Amino acid sequence: MITYIIRRLLAAVVLLFIVSAVTFSIFFVMPKLVGATPETLATRYVGRAATEETVKATAEKLGFYDPVVVQYGEWVKGIFAGAEYDYGTGVEECPAPCLGYSFRSRQPVWPDLLDRAPVTLSLAVGAAALWLVAGVAIGTLSALRKGTIFDRAAMGVALAGVSLPIFFTGLISLTIFSYQLGWTAPGGAYVPFAENPGEWAYNLLLPWITLAFLFSAQYARLTRAGMLETMNEDFIRTARAKGLPERTVVVKHGLRGALTPIITIFGLDVGLLLGGAVLTETAFSLKGLGQYAIEGITNYDLPKVMGVTILAAFFIVIANLVVDLLYAVVDPRVRTK
User: Fold this and answer.
1) Cβ atoms 265, 319 nearer than 8 A
2) Burial per residue of 233-269, b for 16 or more beta-carbon CB atoms within 10 angstroms, e otherwise
3) Which of 27, 80, 234, 271 is the most buried (most CB within 10 A)?
4) Cis peptide before 245 (omega within 30 of 0)
5) Which phi and psi (to 5°) does residue 72 adopt?
6) Cβ contacts of 269 within 8 Å, gap of 6 or more
7) In the predicted structure, residue 154 carries a pLDDT above the cut 60
8) What is the mean pLDDT of the chain?
9) Domain at 112-331, CATH homologous superfamily
10) Which of 28, 17, 262 is nearest to 139 (CA)?
11) Which helix (H) or strand (E) segment is 235 a member of?
């Protein structure tokens, strides 16, 4: 078990290095391959209205004329040791971890990410708990009652949940439950959990349900398929022949065998959402990481986009590491691989 954990930790470190290199290449190397110049890259930091002299000076100060290896080294160094940015009238400090410095707002990106992260974290964790419980429970019941009215109705609703986009269900939910019935918050408000847990949950209840409706539909269908396959295995028949209670057969043997794909997609989904639930945050006017990335794209502020990209990649890698470790708990055979 210890060897398995060490291997996965080392693999996660290597993967983070690869992700950082790929991210840097996407923003700095690939544009050069299609004809971009250091001046073109610099315009992403100073905006489109900057003068030619300002663009050239910025490109030189940011090291865009240096070799790519040197640029990548300086970029990685900034993440761990901080960086200094000279924008002409002074030198600005970007303390570690420096995931970028916005020349438009003249402030580091990291404090903004820390300010937005609780909103995205609250949205992702609450919705994930709802869709995991609802999806697995509905999928299990549908598999045990295959062909019944409940099974057909549940899979029909699941198909609708998978098909309907989040911006559609979000706006419809706001119209009905917030503006007409007044049961939920109208969106746009966020209260930290430490200040008022009740208000925190009330403001996020409708975004949780809307986001969970989309994902729980996928989990219900996947759980149903996995349970139907697992419940026909020889070890299930053996467990029943030994006289084990049906609940033990279903939960301990059947569901446990069907959990591996569920854990896989759950880790990926949560990792992606922690990087910013763009559509959900936009539909409900929540100022999370997704909205922050949209603002960076709209305002042509590349450091903001890069900061969210790196943070999202980090969450996905960590989520995959947790999934690998959970595999060893769910299926002991994984420990020997």
Assistant:
1) no
2) eeebeebeeeeeeeeebbeebbbebbbeebbbebbeb
3) 271
4) no
5) -65, -40
6) 128, 215
7) yes
8) 82
9) MetI-like (1.10.3720.10)
10) 262
11) helix 234-241
Strand partners for 94 = 83
For the chain, where do the domains classified as CATH 1.10.3720.10 start and end?
Answer: 112-331
What's the burial of 20, exposed, middle or buried (CB within 10 Å: 0-12/13-18/19+)? middle
Q: 4, 56, 90, 49: which is closest to 329 by C-alpha?
A: 4
Residue with tokens 């391959």: 33
Single pTM value for the model: 0.80
3-state SS, residue 99 = coil
The string of pLDDT tens digits covering residues 222-251 is: 888 888 887 777 777 787 887 888 778 787
Pairing mode, strands 101-102 and 91-94: unpaired
